[in-house]
Every structure is written in C-alpha cells, then in structure tokens.
Amino acid sequence: MLLGGNKYYGLNLKKETITTMRGFGGGMHTEELCGALSGGVAVIGVIFSEKKEYDQDKIKEATKEFVEKFSQELTSTNCQEVKNIYREEVYKCSPVVGKAGEILERTLCKYQRLNK
C-alpha cells in the first residue's frame, strides 16, 4: 500500500522509508492486522504530515474512518479472515490491496476536501 500510495500520490518517499513496511505484510506475519490496512494508515500519516505542522486531528479522523470502512467493506481487519474471503492463489492479496486502495482514495478525498 505504501509503495502504491507513494507512486499514486507522488509522495516522493525514499526507498528506505518504503522498505520499513515490509514487516507488515501477512498481518505482520502473524495473520492478525491486515497489511493493506497498515499500509493505508501509513499513507494517511504521510499525506497529512507533509506540512511542518501536521494536523493530528485530521490524521485521527481519517484513520478512524479508513479502518471502519475497511472493516465494513472487507468484513474484518484481520488478515486471516480477509484472506479467507478475498485472497486468490494467482493474484495473492492483490484484490485486497485494490479494495483497500479504493477505500483509502475515498477517505483521502473526503478529508482533503473538508479541510482545505
């Protein structure tokens, strides 16, 4: 998610920054919190922290909504539960990442529009 968000939103993150998210895949390799969800939260944090003084309230509200919508639309935030429904052998978790990206885009658009 962070790699895709970096490209899509032109965040210009360094490779080293992006690689910090490697441990979050596969529900942090415990099949707990979905890595796509963790990555989306990272994108929210980067986008709303671009200015010298970041907006903690905006980060909090956007994160809360992203997590809630993710849970509603994918039925859970748990990696194992989400994989059981959406993971495909050929495409792995690409369907989950795609859906998470759609939810993230809607969330970012809403909070960027409301707070400009």
From TrEMBL:
It holds the Pfam family C_GCAxxG_C_C. InterPro entries: CGCAxxGCC_motif. This is C_GCAxxG_C_C family protein.
